[in-house]
């Protein structure tokens, strides 16, 4: 029995539809705050049709267009979820219209800025955020315990991990998943 297009989807249904593992969808929830499935008892996720379309757009950016996660986040931040949904659907007219609207909004905001803000805006941005896969990135300045760090790890009470350590591990996980994605893409 097929569900109606407006029906909510479980994580397994979305994973099958987008040809992605479920853990990737869970990981993307941590990286893209626009992805907010409804969670029911026991943590079960139910994705709205717009959530599925946004995931489709993100998948297209990452897997087909070769964007990094940071690049996709930047596109979402600059243009909004409707833009990424339109990209995933292949709706060129909507993509162009939304991009023009975002450019107009940016110009309007720029006109309202103070002279100090305009000077700061002219300073070069860090364009590494929108790098495509395959372009060289500068080496990471992060240091994980055991890799170039000589001091002992900070002690935490009650068996809980310190927030900084958790953030470092989360970044390491992101790097590993990004490497896996690049390797998988190179193999196919």
From TrEMBL:
SMART domains xrefs: HTH_MERR
Domain HTH merR-type per the UniProt entry, residue ranges: 10-78
Domain of life: Bacteria
Region Disordered, residue ranges: 105-163
Keyword DNA-binding (UniProt): yes
Cited InterPro entries: DNA-bd_dom_put_sf, MerR-type_HTH_dom, MerR_fam
UniProt-recorded Gene Ontology molecular function terms: DNA binding; DNA-binding transcription factor activity
Classification via PROSITE patterns: HTH_MERR_2
Record-linked Pfam families: MerR_1 (PF13411)
Keywords: DNA-binding
Biased composition (Basic and acidic residues): 105-125
Protein name per its UniProtKB record: MerR family transcriptional regulator
Biological source species: Pararhizobium mangrovi
Upper lineage: Bacteria, Pseudomonadati, Pseudomonadota, Alphaproteobacteria, Hyphomicrobiales
